[in-house]
Amino acid sequence: MVYSSEISRNNPGLFIFLIDQSRSMSHKIGGSSRSKAVEAADAVNRQLNEILNRCTKSEGVRDYFEVGIIGYGSGRDQAISLIRDAEIVPISELENRIIKLEKRKQAIDGQEVDFDFPVWFEPVAASDTPMVKALSTAKEWTASWVNKHMNSYPPIIINLTDGEATDGDPSSAVNDIKEIATYDGNVQLWNCHLSESKVTPVSFPSNENELPEDKYARKMFDLSSELPDSMIAIAKEEYKNISKGARGYVFNAQLEDLIKLLDIGTRAISSLMK
């Protein structure tokens, strides 16, 4: 059975997040008062904190995962690591690379309580959309990592974007990524499509006919991996209508959908931690 390797400190998992930082990410998500850049940064920072919490035990942080973040579009033809002074790092290293703590509130037992929200990178919306370059960078990082971790659960790459690459067709780079594999299965590539449309969000479709008439939506659907059965089982807890053949793709996502998308991947893998 593939996608079933135990996650351990000897055989960690890998998440790579690709963050679109192009100028169009300054536009507001349909139905939201916040920009796509803000929603994407908030969701990934929150998920990094969640992964860190899941790996924290009484004796400290266990390196069950490694993480990389690639931002693309902050400068012309630019795809760079958003983790300060590093590319892929063990999860325990994230604590040393927080750039600031923001005061946030959360409800506990019906009362709002202040807490410190860690931030590893801030929202940016600046230039073009060099998605092909970002994917090529992710391919290089992933191939190098897999060569050293052939017994590990396959890496998951999650691309958060508003959909249109400006440096060519991303299909070839995506296909190259999907061919990379550990002994447990091929790399998973998911896409979270942030739209200005006010149509109902679509999560984990199994057929492109479930999507609105949007050429970028259908393109991003085609580029997304089919979910393993173990992840479909986790996703059914949130999305009752998900079916076999569902893709790792969310269209017109808002913060809640972003969090669910990211959380499903981490929950499925976390269940294998030993």
SSE layout and pairing:
Elements: E1 13-20, H1 36-54, E2 56-57, E3 60-61, E4 65-72, E5 79-81, E6 89-90, E7 100-108, E8 111-119, H2 131-148, E9 156-161, H3 171-179, E10 181-182, E11 185-186, E12 188-193, E13 202-203, H4 215-223, H5 229-235, E14 249-251, H6 255-270
Parallel strand pairs: 1-4, 1-9, 9-12, 12-14
Antiparallel strand pairs: 2-3, 4-5, 4-6, 7-8, 10-11, 13-14
Helix pairs in contact: 1-6, 2-3, 5-6
Offer a quick outline of the entry.
The chain is built from 6 helices and 14 strands.
Architecture overview:
This protein is α/β, with parallel strands linked by helices. It contains 6 helices and 14 strands. Strands 1, 4, 5, 6, 9, 12, 13 and 14 form an 8-stranded mixed β-sheet that branches. Strands 2-3 form a two-stranded antiparallel ribbon. A hairpin with a 2-residue loop joins strand 2 and strand 3 (60-61). The protein starts with 12 loop residues before the first strand and ends with a helix. The model has no long low-confidence stretch (mean pLDDT 89).
